[in-house]
Design brief:
alpha/beta; three-stranded antiparallel sheet; 11 helices; globular
Length: 354
C-alpha cells in the first residue's frame, strides 16, 4: 500500500514511537498526584509542555493541552466569546474546517476566490461592533491554499480576537504569531489524542471547561515528533513540494477534463487536489485503493453527510471526481509516478463505462 493521505493523519513518527513506550513506563500516573509516580509523570508533562512551547514560539503557560484539534478549536472560540467585551458574533471564512463551522454555526462566512483564498478586506468588512472573534485557517485542509493571516493580524479592529486553525500546517510551515492558535499532533506524526491550543498572554480568553489531566505519554511523544519534524522541515518541504508540483503538472497534462484546484504557489508543500469530470470521487478512491494507493476525496457525496465538499462548493470549482493527494516523509518519486499512471488508467476506465 502506498499511503498518500498524510493530511488526514500522518503515521506515527519514529521519534515518537521511540519515546512512547518509555513514557508509558514512567508517566502512567496522574500528574496531579503528590506521590512519587505522580511527580514523575508531572516532570515528564512539564518538560513536554516546555518543548511544545518552544516549537510554537510560546511560553509553557501559554500552551493548553486538549484531546484533539477539534477540541482545541472549540475551546478557542468558546473561550474568546466568553471573555469578549464586544459581543458573541463570530466571523469565519467559507472554507474553514467543519470543526470550526460546527463550533460557530451562526458565524458570518466570508466568501473566497476560486483558489480558496480569502480577502483581508472582505474579512474586515464582515466585522461588526458585536464581533468577538475571527477564525481563519492558516492553510486549507482540502486544497492546501495558505491564507493571508499575517496581513489580517494588523487589519482587525482592537478587541477582536484572531483565532488561527493551524492543524493542517503545524510542523510543515512557519506559523503566524496570533492570539489563539490550534494544532493537532496526529497531523505532524504524533499520536492521536493530543490537541494544542496556544493562548498568548494578554488575550481575552477563558477556558470553557476544566481541562483535566492530559495523556502524559502521548504528549511526550507528540513533543518528540514535532521536534523531529521541525528539524528537517525546510528540506522536507522542498522535497515534498517538488513531488506535488510534478503531480499537479502530470495530472493536468495526462487526464482530460480535469481541474487542479487551490493556489499554485501559496500552498501547503504536501497537498495537491484535482477534480475529474464525469467521475465519481468515491468510485475513484475505491478503485485506487484496490490498486494499492490510499488517497482521500473531499468531493464525493459521502454517506455520512449526503453533501459534496463545502470547501470546493465555496471555491466554485468542480465538486465531483475529486481526489486529495498528500505526501509525507516516506513518499518517493517512484510512488507518485506510479500513482499518476494509475489515475490515468482508472479515470479512463470509469469514463468508458458511462
Amino acid at each position: 500500500m502506498t499511503f498518500l493521505d498524510h493530511a488526514s493523519g500522518a503515521p506515527l513518527h519514529p521519534a515518537a514511537r521511540a519515546v512512547l513506550l518509555a513514557a508509558h513506563d514512567e508517566g502512567w500516573a496522574d500528574p496531579t498526584r503528590l506521590y512519587g509516580a505522580g511527580r514523575r509523570a508531572r516532570l515528564l508533562l512539564d518538560d513536554a509542555r516546555a518543548r511544545l512551547a518552544a516549537a510554537f514560539d510560546a511560553r509553557p503557560d501559554e500552551v493548553h493541552l486538549l484531546p484533539s484539534g477539534t477540541a482545541s478549536v472549540r475551546a478557542a472560540l468558546a473561550g474568546a466569546v466568553a471573555r469578549s467585551r464586544r459581543g458573541s458574533h463570530v466571523v469565519v471564512s467559507a472554507v474553514e474546517h467543519s470543526s470550526v463551522l460546527d463550533a460557530a454555526p451562526s458565524a458570518t462566512r466570508v466568501a473566497v476566490s476560486r483558489t480558496g483564498r480569502v480577502s483581508v478586506a472582505d474579512v474586515v468588512a464582515a466585522v461588526t461592533p458585536e464581533t468577538a472573534v475571527v477564525s481563519l485557517q492558516h492553510a486549507n485542509h482540502e486544497v492546501g491554499t495558505v491564507q493571508p493571516v499575517a496581513d489580517l493580524v494588523a487589519a482587525l479592529p482592537e478587541g477582536v480576537v484572531l483565532h488561527v486553525d493551524a492543524c493542517a500546517s503545524a510542523g510543515r510551515l512557519p506559523l503566524p504569531r496570533v492570539p489563539l492558535l490550534s494544532a493537532s499532533a496526529r497531523k505532524w506524526g504524533g499520536p492521536a489524542g493530543v490537541g494544542v491550543l496556544v493562548v498568548r498572554k494578554g488575550t481575552r480568553w477563558r477556558s470553557p471547561a476544566p481541562e483535566g489531566p492530559p495523556n502524559v505519554p502521548a504528549v511526550v511523544a507528540a513533543a518528540a515528533a514535532l521536534e523531529a519534524v521541525l528539524a528537517t522541515r525546510e528540506e522536507e518541504a522542498a522535497r515534498q513540494s517538488a513531488l506535488v508540483e510534478w503531480v499537479r503538472a502530470s495530472i493536468a497534462a495526462r487526464v482530460p477534463d480535469t481541474e487542479v484546484v487551490g493556489e499554485p504557489e501559496e500552498r501547503l508543500p504536501h497537498v495537491v487536489t484535482f477534480s475529474c469530470l464525469y467521475v465519481d470521487g468515491e468510485a475513484l478512491v475505491t478503485e485506487l485503493d484496490r490498486r494499492g494507493f490510499a488517497v482521500n476525496s473531499g468531493s464525493s457525496c459521502a454517506s455520512r453527510t449526503g453533501h459534496p465538499s463545502h470547501v470546493l462548493e465555496a471555491m466554485g470549482v468542480l465538486t465531483h471526481g475529486n481526489v486529495r493527494v498528500s505526501v509525507g516523509a516516506s513518499t518517493t518519486r517512484a510512488e507518485v509516478e506510479a500513482f499518476v499512471d494509475a489515475v490515468v488508467d482508472v479515470v479512463a476506465g470509469v469514463r468508458s463505462r458511462l
